[in-house]
Amino acid sequence: MLRDSIVSIDQCTREDILRILDNTRKFEERPNRKLLEGKVAATLFFEPSTRTRLSFETAVNRLGGRVIGFQDASTTSSSKGETLKDTILMISNYVDVIIMRHHLEGAARYAAEISSVPVVNAGDGANQHPSQTLLDLYSIRQTQGKLEDLTITVVGDLKYGRTVHSLIVGMSHFNPSFHFIAPEELRMPDEQKRFCRLHGIRFEEHVAFTEDIINRTDILYMTRVQRERFTDLIEYERVKNVYILHNRMLENSRPNLRVLHPLPRVNEIAYDVDDNPKAYYFDQARNGLFTREAILCDVLGMDVD
After folding, report:
1. Is 291 a known active-site residue?
2. Whole-angstrom Cα distance, residue 168 to residue 196?
3. Which of 70, 80, 108, 193 is deepest in the core (most CB within 10 A)?
4. From its phi and psi, is residue 103 left (phi > 0), alpha (psi between -120 and 50) or beta?
């Protein structure tokens, strides 16, 4: 077990990932267990969230624990000028685990270094989102029956998309091939491409979102263009609707193809895709609950069995 903070997917070995995914399956089969009875979790969301916050809070409740925290930093003492350091030092006196989302890259790692209790990173800026990666890996394994030797196409905001950056690291243990589809303004950063080369991960970059690429894909991972990451709104308006997946584009795709999306979607997946059996994004979100139960038990050293 990790028995420690989880701030980045790269701190998880292949064995860590497979253990957490195996435990996720157990929680999917039986989500209500009193493993965290007597424990208190703090959800500190300095940045807006729906699925991540609610699934973490539901996970704590289904495990028999209790939740304190906030979903709007403007209601906390940070609006009075209190530093992140002081907030973490104070709250770690009250709880057994801290779940934190922050707009600054590196905030979760900093919190983990000063906290006296484990910290789970629920997303820090455009950096990492490890719990999303683990639920993505679980969704991929559930739909494909394996994690090894898959072709994954990621589409949209690859510059700021922390879910995509984390997914590359998580999949690096399983010999994937990637197609990166993005406009020039939002192409995959050099750091992630260097990581791929260092780990022998095959990838191709594209600007056009074509059916030919879709038809060579096992997992089609759509992302939204994130307005909140742009300082230039003119640039955002130029690229926000550049790629839209329509149902007809899946007509000749592989039978095993599944469409994933970390949600929320804006316009990048048309509603006519929702009824296609290859659409898996709402099931993917559901898997977030079971995965986060497994993560919480892991960092707290709880034996699921």
Report:
1. no
2. 8
3. 108
4. alpha
| Beta-bridge mates of residue 204 | 179
pLDDT average per 10 residues of sequence, the chain (305 residues): 80 96 98 97 90 95 96 61 89 96 91 96 84 97 98 94 92 98 91 97 97 98 74 62 92 98 92 98 97 97 91
**Catalytic one of 53, 62, 129, 292:** 129
Task: Please state the pTM of the whole predicted model.
Answer: 0.91
By C-alpha distance, which of 40, 17, 144 is closest to 92? 40
The structure tokens listed for 161 are: 């998309």
Residue 189 DSSP symbol:
P
Give the rounded distance of the alpha carbon of 108 from its chain centre: 14
14 is known as an active-site residue: no
Catalytic hit among 51, 206, 254, 265? 51
- Please work out, in degrees rounded to the nearest 5, the angle formed at the alpha carbon of residue 228 by the alpha carbons of 223 and 234: 95
Among 203, 177, 171, 200, CA closest to 189? 203
Structure tokens at 208: 């056009």
Give the per-residue pLDDT at 161: 87
Q: Is 169 exposed, middle or buried (0-12, 13-18, 19+ CB in 10 A)?
A: buried
Q: Give Cβ neighbours of residue 262 (< 8 Å, ≥ 6 apart).
A: 129, 132, 136, 163, 223, 284
Q: Which residue has the tokens 């905030």?
A: 107
**Nearest CA among 208, 140, 144, 198 for reference residue 169:** 198
User: Tokens standing for 160?
Assistant: 């700021």
